[in-house]
Specification:
This protein is of the alpha+beta class. It has 4 domains: 47 residues; 87 residues, conserved putative lor/sdh protein from methanococcus maripaludis s2 fold, CATH 2.40.420.20; 86 residues, Efflux pump adaptor protein, beta barrel domain (Elongation Factor Tu (Ef-tu), domain 3, Beta Barrel); 137 residues, Beta Barrel (OB fold (Dihydrolipoamide Acetyltransferase, E2P)). Helix content is 29%, strand content 34%. The chain has 4 helices and 24 strands. Strands 4-13-16-15-14-17 form a 6-stranded antiparallel barrel. A hairpin with a 5-residue loop joins strand 14 and strand 15.
């Protein structure tokens, strides 16, 4: 009460207090209105400021593919082994010790080239004996022929009976037969001596050497194996249900384990009988082995090219086929966009498909979980990891 008096000066204290509170209540609405106006201005100022764009979605390289220009093929899958079409196994044609070996595995040889020698043992003696028998038979034949000539003259002169001429002519026939037999035995001995010299039957590369100097071999033992690498072929098998596309000359495209390229050939022969265990039909594919790069014995797999198409090719896991039309999620100008496609030939083996319309070479597409991103979303593809 004392403070009220000091503020108001004099007069009745209660009257002055009522006057003060009455003035305060009159000012309160004005203060609140001013506050609301100030808040509205601040809110309007905050609304006018531009909002920052949302951050771009980061996409890893594993979820990105690029449309490329390539060829898609379709047809039965084949698998098999590379084999040389021309090969030779050199075997011993007589028994004996190996005196000489002149080639190594992997060495190129020409037809008739010396590969090794086998000790002929007693063949030299046999040949010399046969040569002596031939000379003796030749002398006997010459004597018999002269005797027959003399007998013929005497018979013509009447000094000798015709029976003696027949005997002389018979002696000539006997001597001639003995000479033929001696010559035959000599030829056999010489052939056996020739068999002691081992030569290459074909031109090619020594793929196997089974003997070393000093080894003792018997007739029929394997000595060398030679293949012609230019005559390589693929011995493969095709499921019997795909027989309808198997024809002589149909192209075959395949890959070989250990090589980073595709090879082309064509069906050269088709077996007339299916394998009883697998029910697959053996086929033989001719391969132009230019430069002799392909190696026999390697595993190969590919397909008979019954259909092929060239154009824009993408992996099948980048194409969504759930809707009415297939579509992809393409990254363009840093944002995603949905693009509908028209598809062509599909290759289930390599999981690729031809795109006939909707894409261009080099287009960047999303696959996997990244296809769930809303079209129009800003994305950023991460750089490839440094090797």
């Amino acid at each position: 009460m004392t403070k009220i008096r000091q503020i108001t000066g004099g007069g009745t204290p209660r009257r002055h207090a009522r006057a003060v509170w009455s003035g305060a209540w009159r000012l309160a609405p004005l203060v609140m209105a001013a506050a609301l106006v100030g808040c509205g201005a601040e809110a309007e100022k905050a609304t006018d400021e531009p909002k920052p764009p949302p951050p771009a979605v980061q996409i890893g390289q594993e979820n990105v593919v690029t449309a490329t220009s390539d060829t898609v093929v379709a047809g039965p899958i084949v698998s098999g082994e590379l084999r040389p079409q021309r090969e030779a196994t050199v075997r011993a044609e007589l028994g004996g010790s190996i005196l000489q070996v002149t080639v190594e595995e992997g060495q190129a040889v020409s037809r008739g080239m010396l590969l090794g020698r086998i000790e002929p043992r007693t063949l030299d003696d046999v040949r010399r004996s046969a040569q002596s028998a031939v000379r003796s038979a030749e002398n006997q034949l010459a004597v018999a022929q002269r005797e027959a000539e003399r007998s013929e003259k005497l018979v013509n002169a009447g000094a000798l009976a015709a029976r003696d001429l027949d005997v002389a002519r018979n002696s000539v026939s006997t001597a001639d037969a003995q000479l033929a037999d001696a010559r035959s035995r000599l030829a056999s001995a010489e052939r056996q001596l020739e068999d002691a010299v081992v030569r290459a039957p074909i031109a090619g590369i020594v793929s196997k050497r089974s003997v070393n100097m000093g080894d003792v071999v018997s007739i029929g033992d394997e000595l060398f194996a030679i293949i012609d690498p230019s005559s390589m072929r693929l011995a493969a098998a095709v499921p019997s249900e795909d027989l309808r596309v198997l024809k002589i000359g149909v192209p075959v495209r395949f890959s070989v384990r250990g090589y980073d390229q595709m090879f082309d050939g064509h069906i050269e022969r088709i077996a007339p009988q299916a394998d009883p265990g697998t029910r697959q039909v053996p086929i033989y594919v001719a391969i132009p082995n230019v430069g002799g790069r392909l190696v026999a014995g390697l595993f190969a797999e590919g397909r008979v090219v019954s259909q092929s198409a060239a154009g824009i090719v993408v992996p099948t896991n980048a194409v969504n086929t759930a809707g009415a039309r297939p579509w992809v999620l393409r990254v363009k100008d840093g944002k995603t966009e949905r693009v509908e496609l028209s598809l062509g030939l599909r290759d289930p083996r390599t999981e690729r498909v031809q795109v006939t319309s909707g894409l261009s070479e080099g287009d960047v597409l999303l696959r996997g979980a990244s296809q769930g991103i809303t079209p129009g979303t800003a994305v950023q593809v991460s750089a490839p990891a440094a090797k």
